[in-house]
Give the backbone structure.
Amino acid sequence: MSVLITPNASVHASFLTAMKEFQAEGRGTEHDNSLVGEEIQEYGETWHDPAVFTEYLAWLNGQADPANVPEGWVPCRSLWWTDGEEYLGRITLRTPLPEKIRRQVGHVGYDVRPSARRRGHATAMLAALLPVAAEAGLTEVTIICAEDNLGSIGTIEANGGLLEATLHGRLHYLVPTRR
């Protein structure tokens, strides 16, 4: 059964395999400014080392604390979607979120590893995150995706997302945290 967990070393081997899958599809290049891409650029050559992976986990989990976030950034809680020791994907919750940043990136971002896609993981992962967002005091979250990202559109709408706006080829959805 798949569940959200706080990032930890229990899925280290599977996580490394997932990152190789992302790299095989072009993630982690110098032009990839996604969260996964930036982390591959920073840690991809070294996080096979358990000590480096432990440092990475401390950094990643620390990003939820406003005291650890660089100026101009917002706190970001990362959760991993796993099935036992298999890493399937990640979802992030950015909060508190100033209006300007909400309109740029939204509250929620997620990635499902390539070999686990098209099996409902993103939809289930988002459904599992919504109560976490409610506990953080949010009545709704903003999720932004590209107009041609049919998988994300389906994931968001399956979780009650309503289209708020279309800006610069990106769809802005509002998703209630309680239904």
Observations:
- The CA atoms of residues 162 and 173 lie 5 Å apart.
